[in-house]
Amino acid sequence: MAYLASERSLLRRADPRKILPECRSILVLGVSYPASVFPAEPRETFRGKVAAYAWGRDYHEALTVRLEALAAFIQAQVDFPLPYRCYTDTGPLLERDLAQRAGLGWIGKNTCLIHPRLGSYFFLAEILLGVSLELDAPFTVDRCGRCPRCIEACPTGCILPDRTLDARRCLSYLTIELKGAIPSELRPRLGEWVFGCDICQQVCPWNQRFAPSHAEPAFEAIADRRQPDLVAALALDGAAFKRSFKGSPVERARRRGYLRNAAVALGNLASGSGEPSAVQALANALKNDPEPLVRRHAAWALGRVGGWLALEALRQALAVETDAETRSEILEALHPLEGIA
Fold first, then answer.
1. For the chain, what are the domain ranges?
2. What is the pLDDT of residues 8-20, one digit of tens each?
């Protein structure tokens, strides 16, 4: 991602003193969030999946308050004004590397930091301090061994053998960071994920054995955040989206990105079924949504759901659609369906 590779960002990541010149120590902390487990849903409902870290409150807000309180406590222990800076995925720090050096775990094959007794379902946070502290021993043992589960389970093959990640193919990148169209060849690989992805964590033996069953109350699942109703999601206008996800990490995807993802997930879940409720939701989005990005993916999803109703919805949309890229998506979706005319 370009914003990670700027010269200024690279310099600051390489040396925390570029952020806080007085920095002498870095306090690294981890806070658990719920393990990614989804209850079975009735077949008649079309529900997406959201990564577990986004089920509750926005961790940036929840953890910043705690970091500031901890910094104030440390300040009270010293007899001089204490320079400090707090971060939790909000600044140019190599968080996982710092956490490994602080003894919190090792960096697994899936690039997540893994704690030997907690797994990997936790947030990282840091306080840069202008005071010297006794250092903890780094975690130097690699406990992934020859296990290939995360690599084999990744639906897009984005986890590479050298413990790096091709972000361009990662479902978390595609559903959150990517602001444009999802490449058509990767859309079926999204499955029902509408925000983030937990697959490589779900299959990890360290999570299956040791991930805590309960997490911090601030991060417990809020109603309908874990498995949102996709039909209802496609009907959200701007105001409803803001109400639904105020104070949630899901806000980062913005309405257009979230509805784009919901359309793809609904197309995948209802693939080949011709299900009327799915077709109606997608047809309404294709006809009425103000965002061409949403309409484009709704057209693709209608082609995936298939059937007479989808065919008719696509034909009607083609007659009135003015956006060139959306028209192209409609034509591509129509092509395999024309044979049932």
1. 2-34+56-129, 229-341
2. 666 667 789 999 9
